[in-house]
Amino acid sequence: MISLAGRDILHAWGKFVFTGMGLGLLIGVTLIMAGVYRGMVDDGRALLDNSGADLWVVQQDTLGPYAESSSIRDDVYLSLLGLPGVAQAANVTYQTMQVRQGDRDVRSMVVGMAPGQADTPGRPPYLVAGRHMTRSHYEAVADLATRFRLGDRIRIRRNLFTVVGLTRRMVSSGGDPMVFIPLKDAQTAQFLKDNDAVLQGRRRTEANPAFNHPGAPGLLEAVMASQTSNAYVNAVLVRLQPGQAPEAVAAGIRRWQRLTAYTRPQMEEILVGKMIATSAKQISMFLVILAVVSAAIVAFIIYTLTMDKIREIAVLKLLGTRNRTIAAMILQQAVALGLIGFVVGKITATFAAPLFPKYVLLVPQDSITGFLVVMAICVLASLVSIRMALRVDPAEAIGG
User: Fold this and answer.
1) Domain for residue 337, yes or no?
2) CB 250 within 8 A of CB 263
3) FRET label pair with 279: which of 188, 210, 216, 294, CA 20 to 30 Å apart?
4) What is the domain extent for residue 138?
5) Is the pLDDT of residue 208 over 50?
6) Residues 284, 170 within the same domain
7) 214 part of a folded domain
8) Are 73 and 213 in contact (CB under 8 A)?
């Protein structure tokens, strides 16, 4: 039985090998797409891990700071520090923007960090080179994925920053590398209007009759001052004392501070269950399409190989070969084709994954699942050829 399948494969080895390589490329794309989804989930979890927070306090009724915009006053953290069970609270801003270095733009998430110790929530937990920021202005710590180097001068909005430290795997939920800058500089970049916008706002305010009557002498100055105010942040990262229940502290914040507080499981559900949900459905559809195409390729090549040896199958039947032996020969060819395809696909995915701009996470579980699916597809695809082979009339061996 093995000899029959092996001899037939050797007889048409070129068609068999090249078909296996083509199938392998499809399998490689399938494994990479599964790795892209795994990478998106891992990026979201890495974002939460690297923040070092137990609670995320954001604007009321928003899914901030990652899924929606959130804006709260930057003095809120002081009231949070006074709550029972709270060990640390730090302001933070997040803004995705283009960071320019010379003639090169890098899509990055710019993070504004509050001053504090190395373990302050929001700060990079580790560096691979350089140091943490020590000044309150114009210093930056960048992820290695930005390809910035120590000492580089980068431009964020109107200001220039010097890269003093480098970190690794500090990314947004979308895979953009992070650039950390002092909080005050980040507030200026995110909330402060440019000079032309401020000037136009003042002109509109001065032209408003409501601010020109004698009964409101200080109202005009107050409104103009508010137009240049940037005393807002996107969130407050809270770290709890050991043994404290996050949900209990979060419930107190929601009730008394009139803010929304998310625990780690809730924030993970927002990132994975809401932000990545659409991408997951898209990837699932592509995986189904690739599986159908792979099954069609296997079925076609096995059917072609079977058609090419109809007379040989008729001779085998005339000699008394059992149907089980003929079916096993075709099944072994389909399984061998799947094995070649999976090996080629796995090698392709392993070497191609680092070349992708997004993080691709290949896990053994997906490889095992992929192998089982490929084998199942090959077995199912061979059924059509087996059915046709079993219906061959032994008389064709004489009449051909």
Assistant:
1) yes
2) yes
3) 294
4) 60-192+230-258
5) yes
6) no
7) no
8) no
CA distance 101 to 96: 16
Q: Compute the distance between CA of residue 149 and CA of residue 386 in angstroms, rounded to an integer.
A: 62
Q: What angle do CA 278, 112, 51 make, to 5 degrees?
A: 60
Cα dist from 64 to 69, 330, 348, whole Å? 6, 57, 39
CA 336 to chain centre: 34
The rounded distance, in Å, linking the Cα atoms of 168 and 330 is 51
One domain, residues 116 and 246: yes
Q: How many domains does the chain have?
A: 2
Phi, psi of 106 (to 5 degrees): -125, 125
Spatial contact of 24 and 345, defined as CB atoms under 8 Å apart: yes
Whether 119 and 236 map to the same domain: the answer is yes
Terminal alpha carbon distance of the chain: 24
**310-327 b/e with 16+ CB inside 10 Å = b?**
bebbbbbbeeebeeeebb
Task: Please report the pLDDT score of residue 2 as a whole number.
Answer: 42
User: Which conformational region is residue 372 in: left (phi greater than 0), alpha (psi within -120 to 50 degrees), or beta?
Assistant: alpha
Distance CA 31, CA 105 (A): 31
Structural domain includes residue 206: no
Tell me: the pLDDT tens digits for 361-388? 898 998 898 899 888 888 888 888 888 8
Distance of alpha carbon 50 from alpha carbon 169, whole angstroms: 9
SS3 395: coil
Map residue 165 onto helix, strand or coil: strand
pTM score of the predicted model: 0.77
DSSP-derived 3-state class of residue 81: helix
pLDDT digit string (tens) for 250-272?
A: 998 988 888 999 999 999 888 88
Q: What are phi and psi of 150, to 5 degrees?
A: -60, 135
Segments of the chain assigned E as strands? 55-58, 72-73, 86-101, 104-113, 129-130, 139-143, 153-156, 159-167, 178-182, 232-233, 235-240, 260-263
Residues 6+ apart with CB under 8 A from 79: 257
289 and 361 both lie in a single domain: yes
What digits encode the pLDDT tens for the residues 83-123? 888 999 999 999 988 999 888 898 999 999 887 777 788 88
Q: Residue 222: which pLDDT band, with cuts at 50, 70 and 90?
A: very low
Is the domain of 129 the same as that of 162?
A: yes
